[in-house]
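User: I'm curious whether this sequence folds into something compact or stays loose and floppy. Could you predict its structure so I can see for myself?
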Amino acid sequence: MKVRGEPGKDSPLHSFTPRGRKKIISTLIYAVTGRSGYTASLWLFCIFIFIAAYAVFTRDSGPEAVRFPRYKASFLEAGRRDGRIARLKERIAADPNDIHALLESGILKFQKGPDYYSVAFADLEDARARGAADVRIFYYLGRMYQAEGLYDFALEEYRRLINNRPEDFEARMLAAKLLFASGDYPQAVREYETLGVAHPDNILVLENLALDRIARVITDNPSKLKWLVTGKMTEYQGMNYLLVERAVLKTQLQSDDSDF
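Assistant: Here's the prediction. I'll summarize afterward.
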């Protein structure tokens, strides 16, 4: 999978000039009109295939069509990625204001992992400083800031992404988790509630919303609280955890709960 600053320009059809495209279509139409029967049907089929291919390869040619890889399964293969980074380095050396090359270089370096985050940071921030307005910058900077423990900066980037793409599920989840970690439980609850409206059956959203509400109650009540919690014991990486299924706040435990 290739990551380019301007999606769609890798298409072999994208390099055709408008005159070239018009000439190709005109040639195909002439071939059809000069033939009949089976041959005409075959040529009509070819035209259909050409139009379909054209639509597929050029539908994401604008910067607003934001489709970008977020996890290793969709990253560019290492050998091709390194070769592409080398070519982008030459482009940037020849033109330091090539924001598309800077953007792509930063994204590809992000894919190489934490050891390359510093140079990925530099390319993406440089692209933004020189005028790049691609919303992917917010996501990748947020991920890297979060990985480095700079949560305030990460949250700022996620908020910028959400402002541009309110429907972005992952960005809202990441922002909500950072809000929770920082102790801003009311805002974290609001984020999870927003997600809950759009994804009412998503278990991950519901679980996080429940935990945030518990934390909010604990924070808002300085007195010692008693809870009735039901769940299942589970194990992860050699440690035991309680997977909460239900948590009920009880101001006073009943006699049948005294052994809990």
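Summary: The mean pLDDT is 74. Strands lie at 226-236, 239-250.
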